[in-house]
Amino acid sequence: MPARYVFTETWELPLSPEAVRDALVDVERYPRWWPQVRAVAKLGEDDALLVCRSVLPYDLEIVLHAVSRDLPTLEVGIGGDLDGFARWTLTPAPSGSRMVFEQEVVVRGLLGLASVALRPVLAWNHRKMMLGCRQGLPAAVGSA
Length: 144
Description:
Helices cover 33% and strands 46% of the residues. The relative contact order is 0.27. By secondary structure, the protein is α+β, with helices and mostly antiparallel strands.
């Protein structure tokens, strides 16, 4: 039974849109600054496999396919345990960057079935994952 999830977040960080873009498109470095991204394997010029684990004891394997790496919109197609897309829209703000994150995915298999009862827990788990991204981005930009 598939389950559909839609996530949106808006952040402002004291980083330039260009610096944020550079950190976000460098997928292979995610495990250095984004604690919930446990491993990355480059599959090709535009593709990578990520193994993610947030708070719940479950490894999520997702395949990212780069759709756009150009400002203001970065976008990837998502496959593997999830099907859909994730998109960052990065624009200048007085503090540095305004970042709008949008993700729409369908979860299938056992995780999709579990979503019937665990939807609030899975959404909480996702928020914790994104908090790791938000907290880690300044370090990623500082080490680039």
